[in-house]
Amino acid sequence: MSAPNLYNALLRPPIIQILRATGFHSTRPSVLDTLVDIAARYILLLASSAAEHAINSHPDEPVPDLEDIRLALQDAGALRPQLREMEELWQGEEDLRGIEAFLSWFTGPANREIRRIAGFVPSQGDVIEAESLEKEDYLTSLKKKHSKTGEESRYAGTVLGKSAEEHPVVIEGGYPSIRDWGLQIKYREGSSESASSTVSSVPTDLSEMEEMDV
């Protein structure tokens, strides 16, 4: 499975959970794929915009911070209503209506229902332990479900697991690394070129040898 297909497959469950939390209980696969594609493009837009703001604001350490993310959300139109920077300077105060509306949605019943469907908060009537108030996300639960031993080793080195330890790649023929193999190939090519030039300079006729002696 290619990387884009894998990312789209991982994004499908959250979109389905959002649809369920909104009140939809069924949809066509084509509609779901369209929503997944729109969500992926939106996330990519936010990420690229935040990266651009980070490079412009602090190029020495271009890691997006909270301010860069806020600007990216503002560029994407997620913070509404929101005055422009010049309008804020003219009025002499910062417009926080967009941020307050976003925080209200994030902590409100709509997002809480999404979290409940996703398994992050308990449903009414569920008997749970105090340690498990914050449930695991769907991906972790799915990985444990399909792993009989519960080990993460089968996912090591993949996008689903931890980074695997780097091991040297031994080239067939005894070369310790690809770099050494490349140097050996260049050396062979240089040796063959010098040998061919030497052979071409050898006289092929007796008359040529006599002329060389003269």
From TrEMBL:
Keywords: Nucleus, Transcription, Transcription regulation. SMART domains: BTP. One of its GO terms (cellular component) is nucleus. Gene3D superfamilies: Histone, subunit A. It is found in: Nucleus. Residues 189-214 are annotated as: Disordered. One of its GO terms (molecular function) is protein heterodimerization activity. Residues 4-82 form the Bromodomain associated domain. It comes from the Eukaryota. It holds the Pfam family Bromo_TP. Its main location: nucleus. Residues 192-201 have a biased composition (Low complexity). InterPro entries: BTP, Histone-fold. This is Bromodomain associated domain protein.
